[in-house]
Design a protein that fits this description.
By secondary structure, this protein is mainly alpha-helical. It has one domain. Helix 1 crosses helix 2 and helix 1 crosses helix 5. It comes from Amycolatopsis melonis. This is DUF2784 domain-containing protein. Keywords: Membrane, Transmembrane, Transmembrane helix.
Length: 130
Amino acid sequence: MAKFLADVTVTLHIGALLFIGLGGFLAWRWPKVVFVHVFFALWGVLVNVTPIPCPLTALENHFRHQQGLGDLPGGFNAYYFYDTLFPRSFLPVIAVFALTLLVLSYVGAYQRWRHRHDGEGTHARPVHLG
């Protein structure tokens, strides 16, 4: 059961990372998602630049310990992504790319929101005489 729960935690963690990277684009369709996304994005930055541990990494480590394994060597990102999906030396490029995606997603969400709200007051209203 611990292996299954660890695998579920990895899946949730990857989903959270995808949401952190791409969730701003969901706000183009559902503007209120931006508030949840801001929380996730800030949390992602916080756990990557401070010693605050990610709760999903801690949860996976808990399930690994139940299997007799140790903590993820180097943490979640280091274990699953660095030198597996991309070389560690690409981190600065990936950080710039991720920041660019974030800015583009928020600019697009704002433009779509503004376009929707600009159109609300421009519809002709019937004039009642008398």
